[in-house]
Design brief:
Length: 253
């Protein structure tokens, strides 16, 4: 199973990624969770301590120079467009409770969407993870589908878009759906998060009537407290795990 999770910043997509990873791992799946969000806080959401953090692949200057045969940070000139990446998931991951974590990173500079060694490295690695790996891969992305191309989009079993009750979240969701269509990614599921009551659920359902909702997660102060304590959202929270199990069941149906 290959899943990509996206949504407007702050809607709780990393919380959803952590929940998906936990449920799939407890069901005996080999799970590789990929942090491809510039905010890069999936490690904390999975319960990794602060002294066990990974340098994002996009920031590994020497590795990028070696594999692409170029000068990291350069634009123009010549460099390899198909660097070797198949060994990286085994070298640059952390493991905890049956979940392996890899931090991808993003090229954070002007022209980040250009054809430069850093972007080539990241996109080649994403392609390998989605097309060449046998385990469950869950990709925690920024608010879009920038890490995916037409080829890799075909390997994604489901794009999961997290939304919260609010007009800006809906606007981003509509934009993501259009971007996904542009690259041929048709299997999309939606998760409503931070639902305070029936009115919030009706708000999303009525304005997104033609969207397939996989489930709804209530607003839960325990998740906020877990975040403040740098604990996973599922720590001491059986209700959250129950709802995430229902969402996983919908993803697989």
């Amino acid at each position: 199973m290959k899943l990509a999770v996206t949504g407007k910043g702050g809607v709780g997509k990393t919380t959803v990624v952590a929940g998906l990873a936990r449920v799939l791992a407890e069901r005996g799946q080999k799970v590789l969770a990929i942090d491809a969000d510039p905010a890069s806080n999936l490690a904390s959401a999975l319960g990794f301590p602060k002294d066990q953090r990974l340098t994002p692949i996009a920031e590994m200057k020497e590795l990028i120079e070696e594999r692409t045969e170029s000068k990291s940070g350069s634009m123009g000139g010549f460099f390899k467009l198909n660097p070797r990446v198949d060994d990286l998931p085994d070298k640059y991951t952390l493991e905890k409770d049956g979940i392996r974590l890899m931090v991808m990173g993003t090229v954070q500079k002007g022209g980040g969407g250009c054809v430069c060694p850093e972007n080539v490295m990241v996109k080649t690695l994403v392609s390998h993870l989605l097309l060449g790996r046998g385990e469950v891969v869950i990709l925690d992305m920024e608010a879009g589908v920038e890490h995916l191309g037409r080829a890799t989009a075909q390997a994604v079993d489901k794009l999961i878009v997290v939304v919260e009750p609010g007009q800006r979240s809906l606007e981003v969701a509509q934009k993501i759906r259009q971007l996904a269509a542009d690259i041929g990614l048709k299997s999309i599921g939606w998760v409503g998060n931070k639902i305070r009551g029936e009115a919030d659920r009706n708000f999303l359902s009525s304005r997104m009537a033609d969207f397939q909702f996989l489930g709804f997660l209530p607003y839960d102060p325990r998740i906020v407290e877990a975040d403040l304590a740098a604990k996973p959202p599922y720590a001491d929270n059986p209700e959250f795990l129950r709802r995430m199990r229902e969402i996983v069941d919908q993803v697989g149906s």
